[in-house]
From TrEMBL:
This is EfeO-type cupredoxin-like domain-containing protein. Gene3D superfamilies: Cupredoxins - blue copper proteins. It comes from Alloalcanivorax profundimaris. Pfam families: Cupredoxin_1 (PF13473). The keyword Transmembrane helix applies. Keywords: Membrane, Transmembrane, Transmembrane helix. Residues 13-120 form the EfeO-type cupredoxin-like domain.
Amino acid sequence: MSVLINVAGLALMALIVWWFWLSSKGRPAKRAEGGGAIDIVVDDGVYEPSVIETNAGDTLTLRFERRDASPCAEQVIFHKLDVSETLPVGEKTTVTLTPETPGTYRFTCQMQMYQGTLIVH
Ligand SMILES: [Cu+2]
């Protein structure tokens, strides 16, 4: 009987892991096309979209629309790219950057509660 329970427990764990893996995979990455700006909404602790893809050497224009008035959302910082910007509430703030080196770069608020990923191909 205990073997059966263990098997059921393992199956449940596998299901949970699979669920989380799927849900993170299922989050669509937004790809920059032809120099168009990408709008990112800053609200409820998440950047939406939170995964941005671009090509090395391309100039990327991101428009951050901050809806969250809490101080947490005040800044966006692109780590390793030396870019940061203050986001006024209720406005769209344009951030322009040209990543030269392929890689994965994080962008976060100053407390790192908002989390985003910039993938440079
Ligand atoms: Cu924060």
